[in-house]
Amino acid sequence: MFTGLIETTGTVLSFTPGEGATRLVIAAPALHGRWHTGDSIAVNGVCLTAIPLPEPDRFAADLAGETLARTNLGGLTPDATVNLELPTPAGSPLGGHVVQGHVDATGSLVSLLPLHNDLATTDWRLTLEIPDHLSSQIISQGSITINGISLTVARLDLPRIEIAIIPHTYRATNLHTLQPGALLNIETDALAKYAAAQRAASLQDWLTPAYLIANGY
Hints:
The protein has helices at residues 65-70, 167-172, 190-206, 209-214; strands at 8-16, 22-27, 40-43, 46-49, 51-52, 58-63, 81-85, 105-114, 124-129, 143-146, 149-157, 160-165, 183-188.
């Protein structure tokens, strides 16, 4: 499990499709010595299994077709900046929210605009267009994970959402490298997922043909 507090960023060194899995290689000097073979590392919010390389400041990960189809990792190119987070040890403070590293879909970046003139200290407003099937899992002031970052929804205007970005988050993650139209990984809050599923199941239980006929539908 992760918390969505990005520890560092890494740089994509190579992205090599194969007959089976695609091999992704990332330089991550700040994580040197902090992980072992088979450990999970969240890359742009996607939980991947780390594979060692001869160089200690980098790691590889194999991407399945499902991962490429559901996330933005398939669009990575050499020199791209990615957000990285190691799993949170049991008993550690949860500074963000519970993040599984299971990306639901991607959304399109509409804009990321400064709210003040001083770019060194300004906060930012991120506007993202989300897929329709995620709308029931997102609420105003609720938690959401964008490219692995734990964030709070500031405003809903579906299919768009707006998120307030503080200066530290803008500088310490890959948000400052993105342009409008970029695809961002979205993981909705786990509690919201279960609530939406229960609500849908409840509707199926009572919204029967007999109910509709009895109520004039």
